[in-house]
Design goal:
Blueprint: E1 2-4, E2 24-26, E3 28-34, E4 39-40, E5 47-51, E6 56-57, E7 64-65, E8 69-75, E9 87-88, E10 96-104, E11 111-115, E12 124-130, E13 136-142, E14 145-147, E15 153-157, E16 168-178, E17 181-182, E18 186-191
Parallel strand pairs: 3-10
Antiparallel strand pairs: 1-2, 3-5, 4-7, 6-9, 8-10, 11-12, 12-15, 13-14, 13-16, 16-17, 16-18
Length: 196
Amino acid sequence: GFNPTIGTVSGVMGAEDITISVSYLPRVYQVTLHPRGGMLLNGFTSDTTYTRGQVFWLPTADDIVREGYSFDGWFTDTNFNGNPWIAIPNVATGDWDLYAKWDLLPCLAPENLALASGSLTATSALITWNSNQNNAFGGFYYENGVLAGSNNQLYQRWNLSELQPNSNYRVGVFAYCSLDRVSDTVWVEFTTNDTC
């Protein structure tokens, strides 16, 4: 676990005792972190080292991110056997390979979808909602047609032929968690007034 400093002692032994001091440097080993799609933050890198006799603390959930996933610890194999490692102990020796484990976050629909008061006119409607963390806006559609939207507000103009007076309409909002994961759709219903 230690590397002796290099040196030689030569000469002829006399009648008296001689004291020879030997100093050792702690051995340094390689650590390879495999983020598996994540990004290391706060100065952590994939390739680093640890010193024998000192605790080496591993990156926490604050130091590694992956969109759409929550971090679930570092493991010594990709089957994620046993408990996750939070540090390499001071008695450890040898090189280490550690693999990040990720849990897929649920794909949640937008919350509290509502038609903004007084915003419905003959040709337009404003829809607002509270968005969920980790989910990006994925779409806004009127019945079967896909329409435009952005962030947590939608402002969509329709032709007069699409909005009829005193008629019921439904609009829906959903969220993309990734390119292949889409949330359920949340719907809001409204009725046009007689001025359309």
